Amino acid sequence: MKWPDSVTLKEVGPRDGLQNEKKVITTEDKVAWINLLSKTGLTYIEITSFVHPKWIPTLADAMEVAKAIERRKEVTYAALIPNQRGLENALEANIDEIAVFMSASETHNLKNINKSINETFPVLRKVVQDSIHSRKKVRGYLSTVFGCPYEGAVEIDNILRVSDTLFEMGIDELSLGDTIGVANPKQVQEVLEILLKRFPSTKIAMHFHDTHGTALANVLAAIEMGITTFDGSIGGIGGCPYAPGASGNVATEDLLYMLSNMGIEVGVQLSDMLSAAKYIQKKLGRALPSHNLQAALAVKE
Length: 301
Ligand code: HMG
Ligand code: MG
Fold this sequence. Notes:
Blueprint: E1 8-11, H1 13-19, H2 27-38, E2 44-49, H3 62-68, E3 76-81, H4 84-92, E4 97-103, H5 106-113, H6 117-133, E5 137-143, H7 156-169, E6 173-178, H8 185-195, E7 204-208, H9 215-224, E8 229-232, H10 252-261, H11 270-284, H12 291-300
Parallel strand pairs: 1-8, 2-3, 3-4, 4-5, 5-6, 6-7
The structure holds 3-hydroxy-3-methylglutaryl-coenzyme A and magnesium ion.
């Protein structure tokens, strides 16, 4: 196996991480935390979402956060957008990159964004078109690729239909979501084998939640298939409130530790990531799932 020379990590903690927390972090603390993340070497941070505040109350201050953070030119500051209203807010907040999202399974799509898959297509098509018009790159998320909390297994034809449509709309990259963390490495390779016949590996990212502890193994399986972009959430926080049983994403610092010790260039400082992880653990007031965070704290105690 020839490992890649470098891998890109995309930080989704301030969005995916905080959206599922009961404790609301103050705007000031979010801003300070994102500023810490900006200094780690990360080149991509999804800082919030412009969804309906009733649906995701912990991110109701999206505009304030986006306007208050210190922007570094080497970092892309992205946000999750469900519709036109979200895009308008994101543009007003000067978000660098737009991330649209929908699911491969009908029930999760409905529970998460209150529309069927077919009803979602025209909404996102307009968001993608208008984003491109505003010279913004667009990332697409496809949720429930490896299993749906309501429907169980998801047919490959459904995954292909939504992926094809999102790329045809004009997205730059598709992030394949294991929303409830049920994937295994064999399944990851089987799904990628089919998708990579249609789309280049450089256009695909993987977004693994770690409910059953398989996320790092799934990352290696995806790397073997040629994927080099992975989402992570600092501290391992996160989950989708509309996907029962979903726990956090794989911790970004755990990804970083594994990849950099394999000699793969990531460009992110582990010590800086651990400082940012400690910061948010303190604010959330509970031990976070990240292995590297807990290992670092154990050594100090
Ligand atoms: P809806 O109720 O169907 O919305 O919600 P609507 O279009 O019928 O509008 C109703 C009202 O909401 C209107 O206000 C709109 O203006 C307002 P009114 O006229 O009644 O005063 N509204 C908004 N307000 C603020 N921001 C907006 C917005 N849109 C409409 N963007 C909606 C539909 C999509 C808004 C709602 O379902 C929603 O916000 N859902 C978001 C759910 C969510 O954020 N889930 C978690 C993220 S996805 C995820 O975690 C998975 C991922 O990580 C990948 C993976 O792990 O698989 C990405
Ligand atoms: Mg997610």
